[in-house]
Amino acid sequence: MLVIRMNEIALAELIDQQLRRVRTFGHPDVVGIDGIYLEFDAVQISVFVNADEDSLEWRRGSVFPNYPEQIEKEASFWSKFLNQQVIWIWEMQNQTGCRDALQMLFTSAKNEHLIVQLLAMSSTMLVFDLREVRSDDN
After folding, report:
1. What pTM does this model have?
2. d(CA 91, CA 5)
3. How far is CA 61 from CA 10, 45, 64, 95, 111, in A?
4. Cα-atom radius of gyration of the chain, to the nearest Å?
């Protein structure tokens, strides 16, 4: 059974949406990413680390009013995901039951699969670009 916390977005709302804009945020005194704002066609969400639990949370809109935006170091990473459509999404839970990752599968105009994973670890967010290593076409 899916339980949705207050202000939490049902992740199914992201399916078939194209990613239009990404902004990353972090505390000025700490290295790393504290949160990511993702703007889709009709939905905007913030994904952020709950440092007390080393878990990820997501909410509608932006929840980073007091954090400086980290534009330059993340911009090139996200460029391949922009204007691509989400076709699948996973909410991931670790062995201790902590909801600590979110993974999205995008499809590109070239019909390539692009996967991004957001993972909470040590009170910060790690962002991974996952690659397909074998397909029926190879």
Report:
1. 0.83
2. 14
3. 13, 5, 9, 30, 29
4. 15
14-25: per-residue pLDDT in tens?
999 999 999 888
Contact partners, residue 113, CB within 8 Å, separation at least 6: 105, 106, 107, 132
Tell me: the pLDDT tens digits for 82-114?
Answer: 999 999 999 999 998 889 999 999 998 787 889
Contact at 8 Å (CB) between 35 and 24? Answer: yes
User: Which of 129, 108, 109 lies closest to 118, judged by CA?
Assistant: 129
Euclidean distance between CA atoms 43 and 59, whole angstroms: 10
- CB distance 26 to 33 below 8 Å: yes
Cα angle: 77, vertex 22, 51; to 5 degrees? 90
Euclidean distance between CA atoms 112 and 52, whole angstroms:
37
Task: Report the alpha-carbon distance of residue 136 to residue 127 in Å, rounded.
Answer: 27
Strand partners, 129: 116
Q: How far is it, in rounded angstroms, from Cα 51 to Cα 49?
A: 6
Amino acid, single-letter form, for residue 79: S
